Amino acid sequence: MRKKAVIVFSGGQDSTTCLIHALSKYDEIHCVTFDYGQRHREEIEVARQLAKELGVTEHNVLDLKLLNDLSVSSLTRENIPVPTASASDSKLPNTFVAGRNIVFLTLASIYAYQVQAQTLISGIGETEYAGYPDCRDEFVKHLNKAINLGMEYEIQLETPLMWLTKPETWALADYHGKLEMVRQHTLSCYNGIRGSGCGDCNACNLRSKGLSDYLQNKKKFTNSLKYRLQIE
Questions:
Q1: pLDDT digits (tens, 9 = 90+) for 72-99
Q2: Which helix (H) or strand (E) holds 103?
Q3: pTM score of the predicted model
């Protein structure tokens, strides 16, 4: 049986690293990108370019602009300012798009069902997740169970980055020889600037600090990465 995986793919650091990590593990990889009218919609074109360059089996961009109408966030409304990293506090940030991962993972699971993929991969993680409730391991496990019950089909939701820190995520890209690709060509910035981004939003802050920490102590983070993922 051919091993197939579907990846929720935004073209950002995390989902691109997950894709790179999956390339040698699966015979077929299908990427699903969602157009939900996001402020940083340049990520859709970035996702197209990266999927083509990395040679995935198929890449689909699905129209989900209804989410833009339903979920009010600084990522779905131009008139709501994206908070700076220095302005972040313990409250749920206004970059949270309510229901986004619930919808993304559910629709991607339906796609996986249609192509008979056994695995659905997402780059969400709990270690540095900006307080988003739909990035928690508990959420993923409960949704996975509900999806399998609702479709009577066994799909394994995998989150390789769930317990990785940002330096370890950079270490994973470097482990596969793709550090510069992820560094230069992915888009994580809430303001839609690829590479190093705007340098001011929380996504850019986590990304740059993680890279700086990794470059200062590659051996430490590479070893901790290998321990967490049980890779050689």
A1: 899 988 889 888 876 555 578 889 999 9
A2: helix 100-115
A3: 0.95
